[in-house]
């Protein structure tokens, strides 16, 4: 199981995986809130879920 913590305005992501030590990753762009919605860099999260990202 994976846990990922993001904060709007911060490029640092804190993650943990069951049975493994926690760590941090720097995103290429910071998540942001617009009109009460949180926008995330989709490529990063798709890759973290082991999805095949093209292009």
Mean pLDDT: 89
Order of adjacent strands in the largest pleated sheet? 1-2-3
Bin the helical content. 10-25%
> How many individual helices?
1
Shape: globular
Structural class: mainly beta
By DSSP, the count of extended strands is: 5
Write the element-wise H/E pattern from the N-terminal end onward: EEEEEH
Radius of gyration: 12 Å
Strand content: 35-45%
Distance between the termini: 27 Å
| Main beta-sheet strand count, sense and barrel state | 3 strands, antiparallel
State the low-pLDDT regions, or none: none
How would you describe the overall organization of this protein?
This protein is mainly β. 13% of the residues lie in helices and 36% in strands. The protein contains one helix and five strands. It has a three-stranded antiparallel β-sheet with strand order 1-2-3, with no helix packed on it. A two-stranded antiparallel sheet has the order 4-5. The chain is globular and about 35 Å long. The termini are far apart. The relative contact order is 0.23.
Please outline the helices and strands:
Blueprint: E1 2-5, E2 12-17, E3 23-26, E4 32-34, E5 37-39, H1 42-48
Antiparallel strand pairs: 1-2, 2-3, 4-5
Write a compact overview of the structure shown.
The protein has 55 residues and is mainly beta. It contains 1 helix and 5 strands.
